[in-house]
Amino acid sequence: MLNWNIMRGKTVRKNILSYITRNHSGSWVVSIEERCNAFKINLMNGLSIIFDAKGRHVKTNL
C-alpha cells in the first residue's frame, strides 16, 4: 500500500506505481528517493526497489 502523504510534491511514473501494486501489494511504501536518473522506493518489509528514469524496474535489493 502506498502512503499518499509520501507522494505530496513527488512525480512518480504511473508504471512504477503499477509495478508496486502488482508485485508488492501487501507492502507499505516507506520512502521514495529521486536521484539523477532513477527512483528508489523503500518498502516497510526492508526491500528497496530501483527504477530508471522511464519507470522501468532495474533491481530489487534486500
Give the count of helical stretches: 2
Strand content: 35-45%
Could you give a short account of the major beta sheet? 4 strands, antiparallel
Distance between the termini: 19 Å
Number of strands: 4
State mean pLDDT (0 to 100 scale): 83
The poorly predicted ranges are none
Estimate the global geometry from the Cα principal axes. globular
Structural class: alpha+beta
Walk across the major sheet and give the strand order.
1-2-3-4
As a whole number of angstroms, the C-alpha radius of gyration is 10 Å
Tell me roughly what share of residues is in helical segments. 10-25%
Sketch the topology as an H/E string, one letter per element.
HHEEEE
Briefly summarize what is shown.
By secondary structure, this protein is α+β, with helices and mostly antiparallel strands.
Layout of helices and strands:
Elements: H1 4-7, H2 14-23, E1 29-35, E2 38-43, E3 48-52, E4 57-61
Antiparallel strand pairs: 1-2, 2-3, 3-4
Key traits:
alpha+beta, 4 strands, single chain, 4-stranded antiparallel beta sheet, 62 residues
Structure commentary:
- The structure is a single chain.
- The protein is built from 2 helices and 4 strands; from the N terminus they run ααββββ.
- By secondary structure, the protein is of the alpha+beta class.
- It is globular and about 25 Å long.
